[in-house]
Design a protein that fits this description.
The chain is built from ten helices and ten strands. The protein is an alpha/beta fold.
């Protein structure tokens, strides 16, 4: 199995974060497939560990630490009437030594625990040979956290696993130039399912919580978690999705807690209109007239129409045409 480390909270302003928010954020990260959550010593007292928190803080010193899960086997869910036991959390110090390396400076790492950072231009180089050299360096633990400055961190992380790497560090959404956690998890689920056991349907909830804590929205078209990535407007796309969703959707929206939505805008066509109005008997000339009004209204408003606006506009156009015929 691949170890997935989430680093989001190590660079997050957690001053206003409550214990409840912190615990919920960590719960969601574990549910979606994260193996370890990296946290700063300042967050220790807010995790709800019992009385010996002072001793834990002394034990950790100033080091960041990892939060992991323990699944108690003593309360096996196989017994009739027994609920699934809630996993327990445990702490371990982060002993990884962080090294920002360039491709030409690969050192031997005998018996060390290393986190490799940097490497943002790796995809333009002979990365299979570089991965082979890293994996043969003799390191006890080798974690990779490539920079996303060239927007290639997800690809580098997945190629690392394909080459035999067993540990990746990420951050949720585009946080701090870490590999985007949600993209790495989806890549593992689709291409290396034997390495993945998480439930990505909580990603939408995780995005909402992240936005509330960060005080800023995630981009609506952000890959995997963007709120609008499954909204379909243009006529050819709507036609394709209605016939076979896999034409334009690499995975089911429900996989990430989202849903498909067909919207009417200035790029919409007759198929979209018939679907939204649920009226297969609408004549081609009437559909053309309504679409003309929709496009004009959307251009004027600078957005798509709501359900109510669409039905009101369609009724107005149909009534106007009937009146003209009557006159």
């Amino acid at each position: 199995m691949v170890t997935i480390i989430d680093r989001t909270l190590t660079t997050f302003n957690t001053a206003g974060m409550t214990t409840r928010d912190l615990n919920h954020f960590c719960d969601l990260l574990f549910t979606c497939g994260v193996t370890k959550i990296e946290l700063t010593p300042d967050l220790l007292s807010r995790l709800g560990f019992p009385a010996n928190a002072c001793g834990l803080k002394q034990w950790l010193g100033n080091r960041n630490f990892f939060l992991t899960q323990i699944h108690p086997e003593s309360l096996a869910s196989g017994s009739p009437g027994m609920n699934e036991p809630k996993p327990l959390w445990k702490l371990e110090p982060n002993d990884l030594v962080q090294k920002n390396i360039s491709v030409g400076q690969l050192d031997p790492y005998q018996h060390q625990k290393i986190r490799i950072t940097g490497l943002e231009d790796l995809m333009t180089r002979d990365y299979p040979s570089i991965f082979k050299a890293l994996l043969g360096s003799g390191a006890q633990t080798l974690d990779l956290c490539p920079s996303n400055q060239q927007h290639c961190a997800t690809a580098i992380a997945l190629e690392w696993v394909l080459a035999g790497g067993t540990s990746i560090s990420c951050g949720f959404t585009n946080h701090h130039n870490f590999p985007p956690l949600e993209e790495v998890l989806m890549g593992l689920k689709l291409h290396l399912p034997h390495t993945f056991s998480g439930d990505l349907s909580v990603l939408s909830e995780l995005r909402h919580l992240y936005e509330a804590l960060a005080g800023q929205p995630v981009a609506k078209m952000k890959a995997i978690i963007g709120a609008d990535i499954f909204k379909v407007e243009s006529g050819i796309h709507v036609d394709g999705v209605l016939k076979n969703p896999r034409t334009y959707e690499p995975f089911n929206p429900q996989t990430v807690g989202n849903q498909r939505e067909i919207v009417l805008g200035k790029h919409s066509g007759r198929k979209s209109l018939l679907y939204k109005l649920n009226d297969s008997d609408l004549s081609e000339s009437m559909a053309h007239s309504i679409l003309k009004q929709i496009k004009g209204r959307c251009t004027q408003l600078g957005r798509n129409l709501s359900e109510l606006e669409l039905r009101t506009l369609a009724s107005e156009v149909q009534n106007d045409i009937k009146t003209e015929i009557y006159c």
